[in-house]
Each structure stands twice: as structure tokens, then as C-alpha cells.
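Q: Protein A?
A:
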Amino acid sequence: MIGIVIFLALAFDFINGFHDTANAIATSVSTRALRPRVAILLAASMNFIGALTFTGVAKTIGGSVADPATLSNGLEIVTATLLAAIAWNLLTWWFGIPSSSSHALIGALAGAVFVGAGADALNMGGFKSIVLALILSPIIAFVVGYIVMTILKWIFGNKSPHSVNKGFRSMQVITAAFQSFTHGTNDAQKAMGIITFALVTAGYQSDMDVQLWVKIAAATAMALGTSIGGWKIIKTMGTKIFKIEPINGFAADASAASVILSATLTHLPISTTHAITSAILGVGSAKRFSAVKWGVAGRIVVTWFITIPICATLAGVIFYILDWIFY
């Protein structure tokens, strides 16, 4: 059973890699700052390095929603959680919707714990703090993106657009690498946290410290997933929200990466998808409010809000099915 859980957690990390690749490289690909293949290899490498750098988010994921040591059916709960999160990620990837893997995982874990162990097993305080971070981070990313783009407009507004974009196209290589690194520092840790959660509930370890082999396995799975790429989401992020120029891409990438790294340093799991999409929306609004395709943005936001309840419900249903089959 623990082998199945580890396989599913790494599968989730792999899918997260190609599902969220677009987040880090969509702007640099759409502005032709990087060729798609080069951008994906850069993202994969920096994701791997970022995934090995921190563990604070993993400990939050593994211990804040529920105490794994108190769950007699923890492996069943984790299995239902991962199956639900994987199903939602694949569905949204198929339709090219940049939904949140973090929302999917947190919602699924809460739903599986609630159904499998009861409301008392759910740590509402920890769950609320995570959800609050998930809600506030896109708002902060929007504001930061708006401010950064406004400052850049003020500085470079009277200069030649051609020379400005040429300079920022080169700078986008740096911000794409930075954003890929921060993505690894936050998103890869979610699989690490779930694996550690499973190891504790199965009695293989007594604390939430992430073992080295778990770090390497999760980092590798995410890097391999990233190397495949998610072209449908790249198209949505890079072209369908508003027409992105190199200066806009630089502003969005720098803003989102700063928000993600700040969350990682405070051990908070946030949605990299939300942070990056919101930063793009903020930058687009600063450029020209009417330039943003708010219909597309609205559909993305709706997906954000429905992810947690849908995944919680789906995980609960899957838990019932697993319980009926095996017990």
C-alpha cells in the first residue's frame, strides 16, 4: 500500500510538472525570448534545483491539515487524495485551463480526511491558514504585477519600443529561470509532504522531516514532467489573456516569482498557477485595462473557486469506493 501511495504521489508530481510548466515559461515563449524546447529544458533544470532547496512547505502540507500519526486508515485517505487530485489535474490540462494543483491537493486531502476519519480529525485551523494563503496570494500577485508594470511604464515610456523590448527579451531568460526555480521550491514540496504524511501514518517514521530519497524522487518526477511541457496551457497563459510583449513578460515573471519565493520562505503552500496568472492580469491591467480579455480571465477564476470543493467531494467519493472494495 505504501508503494502505491508513493507511486501516485510521484505521478501527481510528474503531472504537476507538465501541467504547470506553462506557468514558468508561457510569457518567455510567447514573446520569443526563448525557443519552446530550450524554455522547457531550462524550466525542468531550475525546477529540480528548487525542489531540493527547501522543505518547509512539505512539512506544512504533511502536518497542518491532519495529524497523520492519529489516522488508522491514513494510507487509504492519501490514496483517495492523490487519485482525486490527479484526475482533476488531467481534466483541466486536457481543456487547457490553468487550474491549481495546490487547490486540488489541499481540497482532496481535506475531503478524504473528513470522510475517512471524521470532522474531528480535520485540523480546521491549519486548513484555514492554508486556504487563506491560497486566496490572498493571487491578490498580492495582481497588485505587485500592476505596480511593477506601472513603474516600468514610467521609466521606459518615452523610449523606443523596439529597443526596450529587445533588452527585456534578454532579461526574460533570467526571470523565466527564477520563476522555474521558485515553482520547484513550492510545488514539488507538496508531493514530498504527502509522501512523508504517508510514511508517518504507516509507522515508517515519527516526524515530518523529509528524507533525502523523498526529496530526490519528487524533484526528479517534477523535472521529468516539466520536460514534457503543457502546450495547451502555454497557449492560454501566453496569448489568450492579453498580447504580451517582453517588458510585460518580464514584469509578470518577476512579480509572480517574488510572491512564490516569499510564500516558500514562510512555509506556506500557494498556487503557482494563481500567482503567475494574477501577475499577468495585473501587468495587463497596468498596460491597458481594456487590453485584458476578461472573459477568458473570468473562466480561469471560476475554475480557481470550484477546484477545492470539487476535489474534496471527489476524494470523499473515491474513499468510499476504496473502503467498499478493500474493507
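Q: Protein B?
A:
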Amino acid sequence: MIETLAISGYRSLRDLVVPLGPLTVVTGANGSGKSSLYRALRLLSDVAQGRVIASLASEGGLSSTLWAGPEKFSRAMKSGDMPVQGTRRDGPVSLKLGFSSADHGYAIDLGLPIPGNSRFDHDPEIKLEALWMGPAIGRSNLLAERRGDFVRLRDADSGSWRDGARSIPAVDSMVTHCADSRDGLELLQLRERMRGWRFYDDLRTDRDAPARRAQVGTFTPVLSGDGADIGAAIQTIFEIGEREALADTIADAFDGATLQVGERFEVEMRQHGLLRPLSVTELSDGTLRYILLAAALLSPRPPELMILNEPEASLHPDLLGPLARLIVKASARCQIILVSHAAPLVEALERSPDARSLRLHKELGETLVEDVERPRWTWPSR
């Protein structure tokens, strides 16, 4: 389980280090930084997919995503005795992302390139990466380190260092280019863990949503990000998953209703009093969204980490209680980070003994967390 998440220099997240639990609920007012925290997690996942640079480019480039305020706030700035203004920088311009668990930690530092003759001079560069053993970085527990274009790896048995790469491109991560079952086993394990993180923020329920169309059904233990394969995912749960748990959560939310899957892998719902099942095209947006969330959360192949962004969208308030119970049940099988501004859902989840709440607010444009002790964290230095 990831125990600490660290973000520095990304949008309103100037210097955010927060603890995570089995179920972490991120909430706050509009504009408090919830979406920035979610996107930062996406960027971390993109490192293992080899597309972090492209993802930053799609957001407008590194310059558009960097923290726009001063490097530090003085006491006079915070008290209002002095206007907020830029000061002389102590460190380089950088965007840093990292996380740690009880067994491993990882951090990446992205910065601006040295201007040259290339038309890609605005692409960010990976300046530094580090992988270490344990929750906090130190000289003795480093397992892999990348500085510039040079990567070195430490042998787990002898403790000696060896070259991993001497000319790794500035846009490529050591997590993807130096992961090897023989020479870079720890990096390989890290890469596969990060690639297994599962994000759900685009479960479409509109009239033209893929989930409302007939599909070719194949074995589907993991629901796709847009929910297109919902019929096959539900059928897979029927055959190898927690069929009774799915039946209970649907009956809990819809007064004893049941699900079935048609011949063309279209989801159908049977309700008391109706002579025929309702086809997926007849279901309301909220009903379909709840079914999609149930299929995601009850996956027969749960991930190490699942991140949900505003799952309450389109849901009637009466469905927030059943959804909270479903999320709490799923958090016993995988770590969940949930971003939401729906107070009833947040309050219901916070009643779980395993839930940790991160309430965000802004001060002088910076995202801060209310009443949470900052975990121990040290960034590797360039």
C-alpha cells in the first residue's frame, strides 16, 4: 500500500506531502486542488507507461503546469504585511512527483531543457529519478538512481553499484528503459506495480455512450476506462467473481432489482412489477453509472491501487449510501483514493475506520491540507 504521496511544483501543489490509507477521501471546495492531485497521480502512472512527457505536453507543456507563485512564502507575505512577489530562487525550476510504501519509494524530478537548436526545446526533461528501499530515502538504501543521462543500479546482495545506462534519453524514464528481470529487477517490479494502477474518471453514460451499445463479449476481469465492455465485465463477475456481492449491491441500490446480460452482451435490469427486463438503452444515466462503478469496484482482478474521480456524477442522492458501502467493501481488497465534493458520500465514507480524509483548501493560491500531519519525506537533490 502507498503510504505517502509527494508532489512539488505542479499547478497549485507547491509542496504537498500527504499520508494515504487503505481508503483515502480527497475533498474540498471547487478550485481547491482536487483535480490537480488527481492529475498528478495520473502523471506518476504515465511514467511507467512511457508517456509522462506527452501527458505534460497535452496539458500545455511544463511551463503551463508549473506552480505559478513564488518559490517560498515569507512570513510577511503570509500575514499580508508584504505583497506576494517573486524572490531569488534557491533551487532549479522543477516539477517533482513521488510516493513511498513500507517497502519501496520512488521520486522523479522534471525540469526545463538547456536551449539549443532543436524545435523540441520546450519538451521537459527528466533530470533525476530515484528508487529506494523502505519509506524514506537515504544513501544506504538507494536501489537505482538516474542523474541526467546516467543510470546506476545497486546489487541487492553485494551492495555494489553498476552501470544501468550511460546515455538514456532525457525524455525516457529509467523505470521503462532500465527495468530488466536480471539487471533491474526492482525497477521492473516498480514499473509493473505502477502500470497496474487503475483510474476511473471517464465512465460515460450519455445516450451515445459505448456502454449502451451491443459489444463482442470476451473474458473481461477488468472494466475498461470508458465502460464500453460493461456487459462482458458483468458476465465475468457472474462466472468467476463475487456474484453474490454484485447482486447485493444492485438490490441495495435499486430496491431488489437484478442484473442479467443479453445475447449481445448488453446489460439488462429486472425490477419488481415489470414483465420484461429493461435494456441498457432504457436505463437512466445514474443507474448505468452505478452499474459501471459496481463492475469496476467488484473486479475479479482487483488492482493494487484504484483512483476514482468524482464517482458521484449523475447519481441520485439516494444512491450515495449504497455507493459508499460498495467502496468500503472494495477497499478491503485494494487501496482506493477517491476524489469527491459530494458531502453525503464523503461523510458516509469517513465513518469507515480505515478511511483517511484529506480536506483541501487554498491559501495565497497554494493547496494545503487541513489538520493532517505531514509525513516524513525528503526529495533527492540534483
